[in-house]
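The pair is quoted verbatim below.
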Amino acid sequence: MNCIRQQSRSIGLAVLLVLAMAGAQAKAPADQIDRLGKDLTPMGAERAANKDGTIPAWTGGIVKPPAGFDIQKGYADPFAADKPLYTITGANAEQYKDKLAPGQLALLKRYSSYKLVVYPTRRSAGYSDAVYAGIKREAAKIDTTNEGNSVVNRVESAVPFPIPGNGVEAIWNHIFRYRGESFARDMTEFPVLPDGTFTPVKRQEEVVFGHALKDPELLFAFSTVFKSPSSISGEALIVKDFTDQMKQSRAAWIYNPGTRRVLRAPEISYDTPRNGVDGLSTVDDYDGYNGAPDRFTWKLIGKREMIVSYNNYRLTDRSLKYKDIIKPGTMNQELVRYELHRVWAIEATLRADKSHVYHKRMYYLDEDSWQVVHGDLYDGRGELWRVLEVMGTQFYTAPAFYIAGMAQYDLQARRYVSSNLSNEDKPVVFNVPLKASQFTPDALRRMGN
């Protein structure tokens, strides 16, 4: 923790950190909001390069597909010519420990297959002018209530707190972050045994966001239907999250093909094990973190420089087979790209009157997108239990920074689950036309048949 404080980078953040430590909550002042699009990016990141130039200045990101783009081949890598700067292994990890999370150090110590191939930093995250305008327009009025667990006065902003004053505001930025108006994809998840064998879990997924439906009370509507293995084939799920989750909690329904019934599923939240992944991940682990934050207290530690997975265009390559990616112990780390970026560090501690399998969570959020890029998850004994790596990339068809792949390593079970991969499936397509009527119990019944 001292390392994080020592590495903290700030532009006028000293006062904000004091407020965070005190748990204060307040709207961003006008003079701070005025900095958006100036010395701060429209998302609230530091526009300038770091002192030694290893993190460059932000110049707008990548917001348009390159010439000749063909989604059937995957997302063309604009940085394919980059050469690695260095590789971090268990043998030299000590040299880089001030730029790594405890979970990364634990994986380097345990697995010889785990390494970080570090490339030049490319600040590719970028969004439309309309997204930026919505953030700045609403920044002065959006606030929290209920000890930070309710977001109020938000209509369409993708980053309700571009200048966060505390930890819960930072995690809300991740939860609300822009991922297009909607998206649809086929994807495969892999709960991997220690010897590298796995049973693929295939499903279809559709998501539409409240701003696309002109519904300011809806955060998103999500649906998924499982295609394999046979034990869960035909099961389907719809989830709706709302902008004020203390006023209106998550609504979920599940379709069981055996009984051909649709039932309310209030258990699809928090630390319920995710379906199909052998208990290696909880519902709120998905997407880095999702759902209401009310079971934890959230502390804003500050800004630091950290080596994280970024610009993972190779993981979208349609010529790759899943057997090329999924390996014993860890994913194929030759295919994962790492870069040095500034991240927000936040610590979530379980409230005394709440229950959850995790008693502490450390998250690191990319300053340019608010995407969770890494998570360290601790059990009730205070021991590091699971390590979450989110392999993001800039999807310039959205445009938005989103997930090309994920790996959640269970240090106790010596297993991992990999998700969000679509190499042998239909690729993710953004801004597809979806309607509210597609996310109802009746639609769920049709989906499972």
Notes: DSSP finds eight helices and 18 strands in the chain.
